[in-house]
Amino acid sequence: MPPRMDRRLAIKWMLAAGGAAMLARPRLLAGPDGTAAVPAGKGYGTDPDLMKPYKPGDFWPLTLTDAQRRDTAALCDIIIPAEGSHPSASAVGVTDFIDEWASAPYPDNVRDRPVILDGLAWVAAESQKRYGTSFADATAAQRLELCEVMAPEAAKDSDLHAAAKFFRRIRDLTSSGYFSTPPGMRDLGYVGNVPSATFDGPPADLIARLGLTDDVKW
Q1: 3 state DSSP class of 191
Q2: Is 173 helix (H, G, I), strand (E, B) or coil?
Q3: What residues contact 41, with CB distance under 8 A and at least 6 apart?
Q4: C-alpha dihedral over 100, 101, 103, 106, to 10 degrees?
Q5: Distance between CA 132 and CA 212 in Å, rounded?
Q6: No. of helices (H) and no. of strands (E), the chain
Q7: How far apart are CA 5 and CA 11, in angstroms?
Q8: 93 vs 76, 89, 99, 118, 180, CA distance in Å?
Q9: Mean pLDDT across the chain, nearest whole number?
Q10: Closest to 78 (Cα-Cα) out of 163, 156, 136
Q11: CB within 8 A of 96, min separation 6: which ones?
Q12: What digits encode the pLDDT tens for the residues 176-199?
């Protein structure tokens, strides 16, 4: 029997694969006739002051209610729970990230907003129907059971297609939010954004294994 893959490792691999796919495709939004869509309006405001600390909701009104935020936090912590010295997704602010994402005025966010809101409404109603309580207040086993119902590979019933789409989006947003925080980057082993007085280039053994050369040809 092959060894069981750690969930956190699997999420890292999924995130890396998703990042590669995003780099491989153009990011232009297409209009109905296939041409690049032109954003409406005069923009979204001036660039923020990067030296100033900001709080959630400083840029635009937030969308999620307190009950929706609690359910979102519970969902995030099923996707990336606390493990050993690693904090859970909600502990590093992923709930705020998802609330900001659902509230932002940019095209991708506007498109995701009904997916997130309708999905949270479905989770709340289904939890009440099945367990007689909110998703956040359900037992750990009940929350996991409902997530397994929404899992795309399990949601073959046409009535669950929207729930499966929602769960995919929440899973991806949770992973993106978590692994862009300092604890998440440490979890990945990311060593960028660290000042160095010298640059020695890639290790020689890596260059050799890849069959490359560090010679520069002009």
Answers
A1: coil
A2: helix
A3: none
A4: 130
A5: 61
A6: 8, 0
A7: 10
A8: 10, 7, 10, 22, 11
A9: 80
A10: 136
A11: 56
A12: 999 999 898 888 888 777 777 887
Q: Which two tokens stand for residue 163?
A: 């729930």
Query: What gap in Å lies between CA 179 and CA 11, rounded to an integer?
Result: 10
Alpha carbon 41 to chain centroid distance? 28
What values do phi and psi take at 104, rounded to 5?
Answer: -70, 150
Residue matched to tokens 């109603």: 125
Q: And the tokens for 108?
A: 């991708």
Place of tokens 């309708």: 118
Tokens of residue 11, six digits: 């999420």
Q: Quick check: 117 and 109 in contact, CB under 8 A?
A: no
Q: Show me where the domains of the chain are located.
A: 65-79+88-189
Q: Name residue 136's amino acid.
A: A
Determine the Cα–Cα distance for residues 129 and 119; give it in Å rounded to an integer.
Answer: 15
Per-residue pLDDT tens over the stretch 101-158: 999 999 999 999 999 999 999 999 999 999 999 999 999 999 999 999 998 766 666 6
Euclidean distance between CA atoms 60 and 210, whole angstroms = 47
Cα 34 to Cα 30: distance, rounded to the nearest angstrom: 5
In this structure, the dihedral spanned by the alpha carbons of residues 128, 131, 134 and 139, taken in order and rounded to 10 degrees, is -170
**Residue 62 near residue 56 (C-beta atoms within 8 A):** yes
